[in-house]
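Hi V.,

You were right to ask for the full record rather than a summary. Here it is.
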Amino acid sequence: DYYDTLRIDKHLIPNIIADVSGKGTTAAFHMSQMKGIFHSLAQRDIEPKDFMTQANQALVYCLERGSFISATYFIINTEAKSVRYARAGHCPVLYYCAETCSSQFLKDKGVALGMVRNKSYSNFIQSNVFHYRPGDIMVLYTDGITEAKDGRGDEFGYDRLATVVSE
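Predicted structure:
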């Protein structure tokens, strides 16, 4: 799992959360490649869809077949109070709205990086935007949370995660 953030100017803060398939040193190596891609592309303030498309193109040459990286890339604009983002097969963002005291999962179109190994990847990803207000919460997580099991073998799940945030 990987999470990172970078400040590119007074108001723009790119963030990424990602999860690589597999385990061990190969998976760690792939995630270090993702870190390099993030730090390289995030500084350019490109649209999240373009970030994912370019990241996918770079990773296609690095990942062996069957390996992939799920990710969500965000650009937080503190002046406009907006979040632009693209989701590439990663867990949906959980967004809590303080005004309505409700939460929702942002389930957007997007295929994991490395799954489409040609120039058509941009057809499988989209940029999205939402505006936030004081008290709102954006929960970033990996499947390690939702798939965690209790003593009976029951997964924590998405519903419990939403309930915990709402409480």
